[in-house]
Structure formats: structure tokens, C-alpha cells
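Encode chain A's predicted structure.
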Amino acid sequence: MNKNEIIANIHIAHTQFWKTASHLPNVHKSANDKWSVAQNVEHINISLSRVSNYLALSKSIIESNFGLSLRASISNEELIENYYKAMGNGIKAPPAFIPKANSEIKISMLITEGENSLKDCIFNLEKWGEEDLDKYNCPHPVFGKITAREILYFTIFHVQHHHKTIANHTDASQ
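Encoded structure for chain A:
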């Protein structure tokens, strides 16, 4: 995917996720030891905010902290395959990405937070050149250092994965 396709996909995937979350009942109810819908939304918001913050950094800070990539970016399909392998090995969200169990927060507030992070993320991404996406490393809690393009592929896949999760959560909690 090129940068414009990535932007479109990030926007569409997050918008669909939040739309679904906003229409679900019992958003603070957990089922089968899984996160509630609200916790899934908060987790996605945390992840999106982290990507946005990374994209806002100067390239010199990114280079000094995370380095330049010494390889070509892998495809979106390969990244997804690698993630499923990692899931099969029992990976879990690191503590910094685990949502709080706060039943006081309205889902609409969480969605608004996410929408603001999405705007910031896209604004920050717009400043990147196409070639920069393959040049700079980005830290990922499962994969280690990956390219900026790969973190964006992951961002799309990640929200789609949690979208499926909340749709299944609704079936299990009724």
C-alpha cells in the first residue's frame, strides 16, 4: 500500500470500529475473561495515540532512538501472518497498552478521544514522504523494530482484529 492507501485504510478501519462500538449494548460488560467493548476501544485508542506520537517525532530523533531500517518493508500480508504466529505463541498486550476497567467512562467519550487521535495520526502521517515509510524503524512490543510502513500496516490490521473481537463479544454477552 502506498501512503494515500494507508491513510484511507486507517481512517475507514477505525471509523467502522467506532461505529460498531457505539451501537453495541453492554459496552462495559466483559465476557469469557475477555475485555469489554469499552476496554477494546480504549486499547485501540492507546495504540493509535502511540503511533501518532511516533509519527510526530522528528526524523533525527527517530533515527537516533530507533535507527534506520537495513531491509525492505515486508508486505501487509506477511506482517499479518507474523502476528498470527505470535498470537499462537501466546503474546499478550504489554502493560502500557492494557486498558483500565472503568465503567464510568461513556463509550461516546472514548470514541471522541479515538477520533481526535486519528486526526492527529493522519495529520502527522501527511508530513512523511513515501520513501521515509521504509527508511525509519519504529518500535513494536511484539515485533521489535519494524519500519514505519509496517507499523501503519499493523495499525490497520490491529483495529480490524479488535473490530472482529467486539462483534464476537456482543454475541457472547447476550
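The helical segments are 3-22, 37-56, 59-66, 76-88, 107-126, 132-135, 148-173.
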